[in-house]
Amino acid sequence: MQPQIALIPNEILRRTTRAVLAFAALSVLLAPALSGGPAHAQSVAKPGPQAAPQAVPGFWDPRRRPDRPDLSRLTVIRFLTETDYPPFNFTGPDGNPAGFNVDLARQLCEEIKVTCTIQMRRFETLLDAIASNRGDAIIASLAVTPELRARVDFTDPYYRAPARFVSRRDAVMAEIRPEYLEGKKVGVIAGSAHEAYLKAMFTDAELHSYPNDEALRSALRRGEVDFIFGDGISLAFWVNGTDSADCCAFSGGPFVESRYFGEGIGIAVRKGNDLLRQALNWALFRVWEKGRYTDLWLRYFSVSPF
C-alpha cells in the first residue's frame, strides 16, 4: 500500500534552518559573507575519504536561454524580504538588509540595470504588501506551492530545499541507494515528507522516528542510528556548527523529488506581472551564466546543502 505523502507545509519548509542557527554556527558560515570574501565549499566540510564532493546547485539549462524582455519599461523594482531569517535575510552590522536573498536581489538589479529598493517586513505581511502594491517582488525564501500560485506568480526556482542523509564521519558513503541501506537504522522526523519518502523508497531500511531535530541528531551522535535523513539546508548548518561536535558528515547526494520536497524557492510577483517575472527569469539566468550565483552560494554556504 502506497503511504500517504506528508508534504512539507510552506511555513515549515521556509523555516527549516531556524532552529540550528546558533551564534557559533553563524559566525563560522557568515564571516566570509560579511567580509565580502568568497568561501570555498570544501575548506570546512571535512568529509570522510569516500564523501561525495560538495556541489553548487544549478537550476538553469544552458540550452534554454530565456529571451531578453523589453527592460525599458522597468523603471524601479521594489523588493520585499523578511526581517530575520539568516543567512538568507537579516539585518547587517550597518543596519541595512543583508543575506543571500538580499545580495541576489542586488545582483539581479545590476543585471537588469534598474533602480531597486529592498524593504524588510515580517514574513506574514509580505503577501498582503505585494497585493496592495507596497512592493513589486518578494525574495524571502518563499516556497512555491499550489496554494501560493493562486495568489502570486513565481519566477523559476533559484534554489531548492534538498533532502540529505547524514552519517557519522567514520561511516560516510559516497553514494546511497535503497539497497545500500538494507537493515540499516535510519532516523527521521515523525510525520514529515522525509519519513514518507523513506517509507516509499527505502523499504528495506529500519526506520526510527523522532519528534524533533534535536532528538534526531542526538540519536546519530549517540550511535542509536546509522543515518539520519532530513532537510539538507538545516543539516548543512548543523554539520558545520558546534552542536554536532564534528561528529558527522553528509553521505550520498541530494534528493529533490518535488512530489515530496516541493517545487523549489522562487521570487513572487503580483499575478499577471509577466514583464517583471520574465525580466527576473532572464536576470537569474544571466547571473548564473556569469558564475556570480556560484560565488554568492559559496560565500554563504561553506558546507553545501547539495
TrEMBL record:
Q: Which domain of life is it from?
A: Bacteria
Task: Give the keywords, sorted.
Answer: Signal
Q: Which InterPro entries match?
A: Solute-binding_3/MltF_N
Residues spanning the signal sequence: 1-41
Asked whether the UniProt record includes NAD among its keywords, one would answer: no
Task: Outline the extent of the Solute-binding protein family 3/N-terminal domain.
Answer: 76-304
Indicate the segments annotated as coiled coil, or none if absent.
none
SUPFAM superfamilies tied to this protein: Periplasmic binding protein-like II (SSF53850)
Which stretches of sequence are listed as region Disordered? 39-67
Which PANTHER family does this one have?
L-CYSTINE-BINDING PROTEIN TCYJ (PTHR35936:SF35), MEMBRANE-BOUND LYTIC MUREIN TRANSGLYCOSYLASE F (PTHR35936)
User: Know the name of this protein?
Assistant: Amino acid ABC transporter substrate-binding protein, PAAT family
- What species does this protein belong to? Bradyrhizobium erythrophlei
